Amino acid sequence: MPTKPVSAQLGLSRYRKIAETLESEIRKAYSVGDRLPGEHELAGRFEVNRHTVRHAIDTLIDAGIVARRQGAGTYVVGKPLRYPVGAGTRFSESLAKSGHSTGSVLLRKEVREARGGVSARLGLRDGDTVYAFETLRSVDGGPFCVASHFLPASIGEAVFANYEQGSLHGIIYELTGRRLKRVQSIITATPVLPEDAALLAIPSNQWILRVKSVNVDAETRCPLEYCVTRFRADRAELSVEFS
What's the CATH code, domain 9-76? Predict the structure, then answer.
């Protein structure tokens, strides 16, 4: 990579030239999830103060190319990915078809009492048992979305005992023989919650795309899953494809 200081050629300010240089290097040599050198290192390389470097990085953040992770540095996030929201959408299969690598990590699982929107969407009474799962999904090595899944006792107990990672819908079919079909999705732009901001590696003042979905048994139409997914708005472009 070049090591010469950046000049203010062509009337552009120093921070703008630094941003252009970094953007070019990112597109040529970095992958989503890679960490940029620290501000102190970049300031020394370009022979400017850290304020100028920070201004340059802010320009890349505004362009959706990188994001700061509090206490961890600045990371490449890439362009928004089109993600289909359809009746039979499965996370890994949908993005794998487009050539992307995916991952799904189980953050926690717990047994709860159904309340409010959860009980209403699953056709349960308040106080009925539901099995809750929280997953973090990544694309090309970078965080993409966080999902909260709620399953009724009719299928949740077997899944709760066996699910550790990967496709939740896949293990539901493997253990119960029941295929899920999405019948409703409500999409809202909303401010990110602090816990989700940390998991998604985005600033706490950024907004996300929240999708509330109901999945039913493809044959009986009985509600089997209520899911609340929070997508990074700078990485996800949702395409609604119901048929």
Answer: 1.10.10.10
